[in-house]
Automatic annotation (TrEMBL):
Pfam families: FAD_binding_4 (PF01565)
Domain FAD-binding PCMH-type: 22-198
InterPro entries membership: FAD-bd_PCMH, FAD-bd_PCMH-like_sf, FAD-bd_PCMH_sub1, FAD-bd_PCMH_sub2, FAD_lactone_oxidase-like, Oxid_FAD_bind_N
Region (Disordered): 1-21
Name recorded for this polypeptide: L-gulonolactone oxidase
PROSITE patterns the record matches: FAD_PCMH
Top-level taxonomic group: Eukaryota
Cofactors: FAD
Length: 242
Protein backbone atom coordinates (compact mmCIF):
# COMPACT_ATOMS: atom_id res chain seq x y z
CA UNK A 1 0.00 0.00 0.00
CA UNK A 2 1.45 3.38 -0.94
CA UNK A 3 1.38 6.26 1.47
CA UNK A 4 -1.14 8.31 -0.50
CA UNK A 5 -3.65 5.49 -0.45
CA UNK A 6 -2.89 4.78 3.17
CA UNK A 7 -3.58 8.35 4.22
CA UNK A 8 -7.10 8.31 2.79
CA UNK A 9 -7.80 4.89 4.27
CA UNK A 10 -6.24 5.44 7.65
CA UNK A 11 -8.15 8.61 8.38
CA UNK A 12 -6.95 10.60 11.36
CA UNK A 13 -4.60 9.40 14.03
CA UNK A 14 -4.63 11.38 17.23
CA UNK A 15 -1.37 11.22 19.16
CA UNK A 16 -1.38 12.20 22.81
CA UNK A 17 -4.85 13.63 22.28
CA UNK A 18 -5.74 13.36 25.97
CA UNK A 19 -3.97 14.66 29.04
CA UNK A 20 -3.82 11.28 30.66
CA UNK A 21 -4.93 7.68 30.56
CA UNK A 22 -6.52 5.48 33.14
CA UNK A 23 -8.56 2.30 32.95
CA UNK A 24 -11.75 1.41 34.82
CA UNK A 25 -10.16 -1.62 36.42
CA UNK A 26 -6.97 -0.01 37.69
CA UNK A 27 -5.72 3.14 39.34
CA UNK A 28 -2.74 3.65 37.07
CA UNK A 29 -2.48 6.99 35.32
CA UNK A 30 -0.03 8.27 32.77
CA UNK A 31 0.46 11.78 31.44
CA UNK A 32 2.16 12.85 28.27
CA UNK A 33 5.52 14.38 29.01
CA UNK A 34 5.15 17.54 26.94
CA UNK A 35 2.00 19.08 25.46
CA UNK A 36 3.74 19.96 22.20
CA UNK A 37 4.11 16.26 21.40
CA UNK A 38 0.41 16.07 20.68
CA UNK A 39 -0.51 15.57 17.03
CA UNK A 40 -3.98 15.97 15.57
CA UNK A 41 -5.01 14.83 12.08
CA UNK A 42 -1.51 13.42 11.61
CA UNK A 43 -0.67 11.19 8.67
CA UNK A 44 0.02 7.79 10.21
CA UNK A 45 3.69 7.48 9.31
CA UNK A 46 4.48 10.92 10.76
CA UNK A 47 3.93 9.67 14.30
CA UNK A 48 6.71 7.03 14.37
CA UNK A 49 8.97 9.38 12.40
CA UNK A 50 8.62 12.13 15.00
CA UNK A 51 9.01 9.59 17.79
CA UNK A 52 12.30 8.40 16.30
CA UNK A 53 13.54 11.98 16.02
CA UNK A 54 12.82 12.62 19.68
CA UNK A 55 13.75 9.12 20.88
CA UNK A 56 10.29 8.52 22.33
CA UNK A 57 8.16 5.43 22.74
CA UNK A 58 4.84 5.15 20.91
CA UNK A 59 1.85 3.51 22.56
CA UNK A 60 -1.70 2.99 21.33
CA UNK A 61 -4.92 3.19 23.33
CA UNK A 62 -8.32 1.83 22.38
CA UNK A 63 -11.42 1.71 24.55
CA UNK A 64 -9.40 1.83 27.78
CA UNK A 65 -10.96 -1.25 29.38
CA UNK A 66 -7.79 -3.29 29.85
CA UNK A 67 -6.74 -3.40 33.53
CA UNK A 68 -3.04 -3.31 32.69
CA UNK A 69 -0.77 -0.29 32.28
CA UNK A 70 0.59 -1.40 28.90
CA UNK A 71 -0.68 1.72 27.12
CA UNK A 72 0.89 4.11 29.61
CA UNK A 73 3.81 6.12 28.30
CA UNK A 74 5.55 9.46 28.72
CA UNK A 75 6.10 9.55 24.95
CA UNK A 76 3.48 9.41 22.21
CA UNK A 77 0.03 8.11 23.03
CA UNK A 78 -2.00 7.43 19.89
CA UNK A 79 -5.75 7.44 20.36
CA UNK A 80 -7.53 5.56 17.58
CA UNK A 81 -10.96 7.11 18.16
CA UNK A 82 -11.07 8.92 14.80
CA UNK A 83 -10.30 5.75 12.87
CA UNK A 84 -13.77 4.36 13.33
CA UNK A 85 -15.19 3.66 9.88
CA UNK A 86 -16.58 0.54 8.26
CA UNK A 87 -14.59 0.38 5.02
CA UNK A 88 -16.11 -2.62 3.26
CA UNK A 89 -18.68 -5.35 3.80
CA UNK A 90 -18.31 -8.49 1.67
CA UNK A 91 -21.61 -10.32 2.02
CA UNK A 92 -20.44 -13.19 -0.17
CA UNK A 93 -17.42 -13.98 2.00
CA UNK A 94 -19.23 -12.75 5.13
CA UNK A 95 -16.32 -10.47 5.98
CA UNK A 96 -16.11 -6.86 7.13
CA UNK A 97 -13.13 -4.52 6.91
CA UNK A 98 -13.00 -1.77 9.51
CA UNK A 99 -10.62 0.83 10.85
CA UNK A 100 -8.99 -0.35 14.06
CA UNK A 101 -10.52 2.36 16.25
CA UNK A 102 -14.14 1.40 15.66
CA UNK A 103 -16.06 0.30 18.74
CA UNK A 104 -17.81 -3.04 18.46
CA UNK A 105 -20.97 -1.37 19.74
CA UNK A 106 -20.93 0.79 16.59
CA UNK A 107 -20.02 -2.12 14.33
CA UNK A 108 -22.93 -4.37 15.35
CA UNK A 109 -25.69 -2.18 13.81
CA UNK A 110 -23.71 -1.92 10.56
CA UNK A 111 -23.38 -5.69 10.33
CA UNK A 112 -27.05 -6.06 11.16
CA UNK A 113 -27.95 -4.12 8.01
CA UNK A 114 -26.22 -6.80 5.94
CA UNK A 115 -27.59 -9.79 7.83
CA UNK A 116 -24.22 -10.49 9.46
CA UNK A 117 -22.85 -10.72 12.98
CA UNK A 118 -19.65 -11.53 14.84
CA UNK A 119 -19.73 -15.16 15.91
CA UNK A 120 -18.97 -14.41 19.53
CA UNK A 121 -18.14 -11.53 21.84
CA UNK A 122 -16.64 -10.72 25.20
CA UNK A 123 -18.46 -9.25 28.17
CA UNK A 124 -18.83 -5.78 26.61
CA UNK A 125 -18.89 -4.10 23.22
CA UNK A 126 -17.51 -0.72 24.28
CA UNK A 127 -14.10 -1.83 23.04
CA UNK A 128 -12.24 -1.19 19.81
CA UNK A 129 -11.52 -3.72 17.10
CA UNK A 130 -7.79 -3.08 17.44
CA UNK A 131 -7.95 -3.28 21.22
CA UNK A 132 -9.56 -6.70 21.38
CA UNK A 133 -6.76 -8.04 19.20
CA UNK A 134 -3.96 -6.29 21.03
CA UNK A 135 -5.04 -7.49 24.47
CA UNK A 136 -6.12 -11.03 23.63
CA UNK A 137 -9.74 -10.45 24.63
CA UNK A 138 -11.50 -13.75 25.24
CA UNK A 139 -15.02 -14.73 24.29
CA UNK A 140 -18.08 -16.33 25.81
CA UNK A 141 -18.44 -20.10 25.88
CA UNK A 142 -16.10 -23.06 25.65
CA UNK A 143 -16.41 -23.63 21.91
CA UNK A 144 -14.86 -20.36 20.75
CA UNK A 145 -11.29 -19.13 20.54
CA UNK A 146 -10.22 -15.61 21.44
CA UNK A 147 -11.53 -12.75 19.30
CA UNK A 148 -8.22 -12.41 17.46
CA UNK A 149 -8.92 -15.70 15.68
CA UNK A 150 -11.78 -13.99 13.79
CA UNK A 151 -9.24 -11.75 12.01
CA UNK A 152 -8.49 -12.79 8.43
CA UNK A 153 -6.39 -9.78 7.38
CA UNK A 154 -5.06 -6.46 8.68
CA UNK A 155 -2.82 -3.55 7.80
CA UNK A 156 0.02 -2.71 10.18
CA UNK A 157 2.05 0.48 10.57
CA UNK A 158 5.57 -0.43 11.67
CA UNK A 159 8.11 1.66 13.57
CA UNK A 160 9.91 2.74 10.38
CA UNK A 161 6.68 4.01 8.79
CA UNK A 162 6.10 1.01 6.53
CA UNK A 163 2.51 -0.16 6.10
CA UNK A 164 2.23 -3.93 5.75
CA UNK A 165 -0.68 -5.93 4.39
CA UNK A 166 -0.89 -9.01 6.59
CA UNK A 167 -2.86 -12.25 6.31
CA UNK A 168 -2.26 -16.00 6.29
CA UNK A 169 -0.96 -15.66 2.72
CA UNK A 170 0.87 -12.32 2.97
CA UNK A 171 3.43 -11.52 5.67
CA UNK A 172 2.09 -14.59 7.46
CA UNK A 173 4.62 -14.56 10.31
CA UNK A 174 3.88 -10.92 11.09
CA UNK A 175 0.15 -11.66 10.86
CA UNK A 176 0.47 -14.35 13.51
CA UNK A 177 2.70 -12.22 15.72
CA UNK A 178 0.56 -9.08 15.61
CA UNK A 179 -2.45 -10.90 17.03
CA UNK A 180 -2.24 -10.38 20.78
CA UNK A 181 0.69 -8.04 20.24
CA UNK A 182 0.26 -6.31 23.64
CA UNK A 183 1.31 -3.00 22.12
CA UNK A 184 4.76 -4.27 21.16
CA UNK A 185 4.42 -4.57 17.39
CA UNK A 186 3.32 -1.55 15.42
CA UNK A 187 -0.06 0.14 15.03
CA UNK A 188 -2.96 -1.75 13.48
CA UNK A 189 -4.75 0.51 10.99
CA UNK A 190 -7.43 -1.72 9.46
CA UNK A 191 -8.84 -5.14 10.26
CA UNK A 192 -10.86 -7.64 8.24
CA UNK A 193 -13.06 -9.83 10.43
CA UNK A 194 -14.75 -13.07 9.53
CA UNK A 195 -18.46 -12.84 10.31
CA UNK A 196 -21.33 -15.31 10.39
CA UNK A 197 -24.97 -15.07 9.28
CA UNK A 198 -27.11 -13.04 11.64
CA UNK A 199 -28.59 -15.09 14.48
CA UNK A 200 -30.85 -14.68 17.47
CA UNK A 201 -29.86 -15.11 21.11
CA UNK A 202 -31.96 -16.67 23.82
CA UNK A 203 -31.39 -15.31 27.32
CA UNK A 204 -32.47 -17.25 30.38
CA UNK A 205 -32.51 -15.22 33.62
CA UNK A 206 -33.37 -16.35 37.11
CA UNK A 207 -32.91 -14.84 40.59
CA UNK A 208 -30.65 -16.40 43.16
CA UNK A 209 -29.35 -15.52 46.60
CA UNK A 210 -25.70 -14.84 47.21
CA UNK A 211 -25.56 -17.97 49.37
CA UNK A 212 -26.91 -20.14 46.57
CA UNK A 213 -24.51 -18.67 44.06
CA UNK A 214 -21.57 -18.98 46.41
CA UNK A 215 -22.29 -22.58 47.37
CA UNK A 216 -23.11 -23.67 43.83
CA UNK A 217 -20.53 -21.67 41.92
CA UNK A 218 -18.11 -24.51 41.24
CA UNK A 219 -20.99 -26.79 40.28
CA UNK A 220 -22.28 -24.22 37.79
CA UNK A 221 -18.88 -23.96 36.13
CA UNK A 222 -18.75 -27.75 35.90
CA UNK A 223 -22.16 -28.24 34.27
CA UNK A 224 -22.35 -24.95 32.35
CA UNK A 225 -21.28 -26.20 28.94
CA UNK A 226 -23.91 -23.97 27.40
CA UNK A 227 -24.39 -23.60 23.71
CA UNK A 228 -23.15 -20.24 22.44
CA UNK A 229 -26.73 -19.15 21.77
CA UNK A 230 -28.06 -20.06 25.20
CA UNK A 231 -26.23 -18.09 27.92
CA UNK A 232 -27.46 -18.12 31.51
CA UNK A 233 -27.39 -14.94 33.58
CA UNK A 234 -27.57 -14.91 37.37
CA UNK A 235 -29.28 -12.03 39.18
CA UNK A 236 -27.80 -11.97 42.68
CA UNK A 237 -29.39 -10.33 45.73
CA UNK A 238 -26.55 -8.10 47.02
CA UNK A 239 -28.12 -7.85 50.49
CA UNK A 240 -28.04 -11.57 51.24
CA UNK A 241 -25.49 -12.50 53.90
CA UNK A 242 -23.70 -15.82 53.74
Amino acid sequence: MNRTAASSQAGALEASGARGLHGPACSRLCHRQRPELGLTQALPWQVPALARQQNKWVKVVGGGHSPSDIACTDGFLIHMGKMNRVLQVDTEKKQVTVEAGIHLADLHPQLDKHGLALSNLGAMSDVTAGGIIGTGTHNTGIKHSILATQVVALTLLTADGTILECSESSNAEVFQAVQVRLGCLGVILTITLQCVPQFHLQKTSFPSTLREVHEGFLWLTYVAEYEALDPVILSVNPHEVF
